[in-house]
Amino acid sequence: MIRLETRGRVLVLTLDRPARRNALDRALCEALLAALRATGDAAALVLAGAGPSFCAGADLAEWRALEADPAAREARSALGQAVLAAPGEVPKPVVAAVQGAAMGAGAALALGCDMVVMAEDARLGYPEARQGIFPSGVAPSLLAHLGPKPAFELLATGRDVGAEEALARGLANRVVPAARLIGEACALAEAAALMPPGQMARLKRLVPRG
Q1: From what superkingdom does this record's organism come (predicted)?
Q2: Per the structure, how many domains does the chain have?
Q3: Catalytic residue among 128, 153, 164, 165
Q4: HEC letters along 148-189
């Protein structure tokens, strides 16, 4: 579910469920939480997705299967919120390397990281409005980055944001060719790994992420 690779001082965590576009089901959420909480001696982290997409968001098939069980839905929702918060709780810089689609919870997961590097073909989006889902779980990070009016537009219309627009609007730090995505993300992560963990944790609390 999570593939780990060490590149120098950087640990790359790859969501490895490409047949489902790395959609976040319970198993993947639990695996990602465990991986983020056990990063060993790595100075910095890169969060990536296997296959053509970074993350399609929550696994809607799993979510709909829980419709008749409110308690299970509530527990699943709490797990999802823990996953979205987890990159901000790691006392190390975390960089999202986004290719293809980062939708809904996938977009929120990327924005929950400290920095975002996007491939030229990447896009962020919040399709919940088109799917009849209220976006309460994914809205806070978008609000923190864009403010109320632009965030409202994206949440209400479900319009996707391409890589260059994301860069211009402060949702991304870099846009690079897809072939250089992981390398550029690792370089940025390592460049940010100057502070000791205590200071890095304080910096991450200082910078709002939603």
Answers
A1: Bacteria
A2: 1
A3: 128
A4: HHHHHHHHHHCCCEEHHHHHHCCCCCEEECHHHHHHHHHHHH
Is residue 184 flagged as an active site residue?
no
The answer to whether position 107 is within a domain reads: yes
How far is Cα 18 from Cα 28, in angstroms, rounded to an integer? Answer: 12
* Strand ordering across the sheet containing 174-176: 2-7, 10-15, 44-49, 94-98, 115-119, 174-176
Instruction: Give domain status of residue 193, yes or no.
Output: yes
With beta carbons less than 8 A apart as the criterion, state whether 116 and 99 touch.
Answer: no
> Is 208 contained in some domain?
no
Q: Encode the chain (210 residues) as per-residue pLDDT tens digits.
A: 999 999 999 999 999 999 999 999 999 999 999 999 999 999 999 999 999 999 999 998 888 888 888 898 899 999 999 999 999 999 999 999 999 999 999 999 999 999 999 999 999 999 998 888 888 889 999 999 999 999 999 999 999 999 999 999 999 999 999 999 999 999 999 999 999 989 999 999 999 876
**Is residue 210, in this structure, part of any structural domain at all?**
no
Q: Residue 205 corresponds to which amino acid?
A: R
pTM for the predicted model, two decimal places: 0.96
- Residue 122's domain comprises 2-203
Neighbour count for residue 205 (Cβ, 10 Å): 12
**What b/e readout covers 39-59, taking b as 16+ CB neighbours within 10 angstroms?**
beebbbbbbbbbbebbbbbbb
Residue tagged 């991986």 (tokens): 35
